[in-house]
Each structure stands twice: as structure tokens, then as C-alpha cells.
Amino acid sequence: MKEIRTRYAPSPTGYMHIGNLRTALYEYLIARRAGGRFILRIEDTDQERLVEDSLEVIFNTLKLVGMHYDEGPYYQSQRLDLYAPFAEELVEKGQAYYCFCTKERLDALKASQEAAGEFPHYDGCCRTLPLNEAKSRVQAGEAYVIRQKMPRDGVTVFDDVVYGQISVENRELEDQILLKSDGFPTYNFANVIDDHLMEITHVVRGSEYLASTPKYNLLYQAFGWEIPEYVHLPLILNENGQKLSKRLGDQSFEDLLQEGYLVDAVINYIALLGWSPGSDREFFTLKELEQAFDIAGISKSPAIFDKKKLRWMNGEYIRKMPDEEFHEVAAPYIREVLGEAFDTGKIARLLQKRVEVLTEIPPQLDFLAKDLPYDTELFVHKKMKTDKALATSSLELVLGELEGKKEGFPEELQSFFEALAAAKGLKNGQLLWPLRVALSGKEQSPGGAAEIMEILGPEESLRRIRRGLDKLKKELAS
Q1: Alpha-carbon gap, residue 243 to 236, rounded angstroms
Q2: Residue 249 scores a pLDDT above 70
């Protein structure tokens, strides 16, 4: 049985687009499911579009996600001597030709076609040049490119695993450039040559490439090579129904990590953008995806990148994490606000059930770092049936029970407060709501009064309770 070989072939031209990452993921999963090989190839022949540090983004992303490649990275810019002979071979076969049209002529052609309401395209000016004449001009040093000679009539038909049989009228295909005047191959040409030489069996890419696939197939046929399986993926749209784009403010993989999303959650969510496992199951580790992924589950319909769904999924991942693992990822966000002053483990346990993304952590901890200004109206809570007078007596009760205790706070503070409230004929909220407000100065805080006191410690907790009591007494006395 033939070995399955897939390749991720990004161009280092910027950030890691969500669509690019999904393509890499599906290629990786197709190879792993079949026990095949996953190859990394850097398509860097378009030197003008290269962006500094893009390679690091590619390598770091694959490493972070856990998609380890079996071969590569190969660099097209280091394989330049491979491509020209193949282009020349096509010229000799009559499947390509030398084109000497200048930039000025091509610009004028484009302008006239647009003025006439036509779609700009090369007009085949050099297509019929006798080969001997063309070779003489090349030897004389005249600048040229090599163009693919597309058929003028008929239809090119190909099969796609997802979209089925596709037909394209050959008259719609432009004589594309294969080899540029600087000797560099174009993306399409180098892509075909490398896929053949690397024995790629499955070409996975976005559905926007469906229309250009006949160009690839005509090259394969011209060389007499076996055509790979095509797996075109549905578009990923944003919530406005537009294709994901950095220009429209859509986010990259790095952006999502900076917003506090977990790598595993993002990969799990991206896997489901255009693929169904054939059941209601939503949660998969990468290892589980390697076993579960089936090309047959890929949809033709565009997928919507739903940030709310991703946020929910990320929250579920956070809640399911082992305590130590969550502590590890949460600690930098905790220290961002609190430095080394507090036990990050205790705070992490307090937060794990209360955040959906890690960047929600710092705003919840400001009250631990310093006293926050607050209005005494916070002590009033209709549902808890507390007013300022009751809040005052509750805080006095707590102070009376806890001040001066040499042994420190009771071990089970929550149970202690519940027993104290019951003994005094109070509902739990009538004691704990005023206490939590005095400790945090906020209407909402991570954790209740007992949990906050365990973090603040006896001295700071009692100081804040006294502060709250002073604020209440001053207001009631005025």
C-alpha cells in the first residue's frame, strides 16, 4: 500500500492565519491517521513578500501545538537549481514558451482591457514565436519569462475528495508564468515540482484554489506524472460572513494565545471548523484527533469562526485542567498584578472555576494588591436583606470573634462563619455579604469572604474589616 505523504507549505509572509493553521492541522491528521509522513516545506520564492520573523512564527506554532513534522524544513529558495530545467523541458515539449513582453507592454495591455470592461489577462503575444527565434533572443541576453501554454478550448476535469468532480473551461485559464525573469519559479510551478519530487499523495488547501487546480493538473499531465489526491477545505468566515482577514481585524493564532486562550482549546476548536466526527462529541486532544480524523467528515459549507463558542470551549478546558497545570498557566497572570506577595497556588484554585480565558485573571485581582475606593451603598443588598446598620453589626460581630486570637483564624473559616451566623439568628448572606464587601471593595470578586481572608491572611483581613466598619460608622453618625 502506498505511503500517505502530506506537506504543510506556508509562505513566510506574516502571521499564522487561523485558516493556515487549520490546513496544517488537517494535513498532519491525514498523515498520522494513515501512519504516513508529514512534511514541512517553506515556499519562499516570492522574495518581495517575505516578512522578518515569519519563519520563527511557523516553527514555534508547530512546536507549541505538537505537530511534529517527519521531514524538513525544505526551503524552495535553496532548491532553485531544480526548477529551471523542468521549465525548459516543457518548452521543448511545446507545453510552455518564452515570453519577452516588457512590463510596459503588459501594463498597457491591462489598462486597455480594463477600459474595455474585460478581465485583465495575458493575450498570448509570444505564444506563437518559433522556438528557434525565441532561443536566439534568449542567447542574446533579452529578458524573458517562461509561460505555460494552456489549451484554448475544451474542458479540464478533476476530482476533489470534498467537492467531487469539478469542470473548468480551458478558455478561462491564462497562460501563467512558470519561471520569472529573475530565474525564480512562481508559486504554482514550484509547488507542482516539489509535490512530485517529494511524492506528496494528498494536497490539502483552501477551496479558493479550486479554480486554479486545472493549471496544476495540466502541468502534471505535461510531465506525465501521477496527479495527487486533492482535498479542498471550506472557507472560514468571521461572524459577519466575510473571509477571515487580518485587514478586517480577525485574529491570528498568536493573537488568541495573547488573549489568554489555551493551545489545546484553540486546536480542538479549529479542528471542528469544517470537519465533523460524525457524532455530537466536541472535545478532542490532538492524540485523539489523530485517531478520529476522517477526510469523509470534511464539509463543503463555509465554517463560521464563532468567538463565543471558542471562549466557552476554552472555559471548559480550564475547568477540566489538573490544579497544578492550571496553576502553571495562571501564575504569570497572577504575578502581573500581585508580584510575589501572595500564594499563587491558593489564588489559582480560587480562579479556576471563574475564568474562561486567562486574561480575565488580572482584572479580578486588583483588590488584593491595594485598597479600592468604594461606596458604602455596596453593603446594601436587597436579596441578602442587608442594610448599612446590619452590615455594621455583622462586621462588629466578626471582629469581636476574630480579633486577638493568638492561634490565628479557624482552620475552616466558611464553616466557622456559617455557625456564627446561625448562632446569632442571621442568614449566611447577612454576615458574609458585608464581610466580602469590606475585604474586596467590589460588588463581585473571585471567591467569598472566607476564601479572600485565607489569601489576605489575618492581619490584612482584620485591617480591611476595620476600614469598612469605620466607613459605615462615620456615615451612620453623620
Answers
A1: 6
A2: no
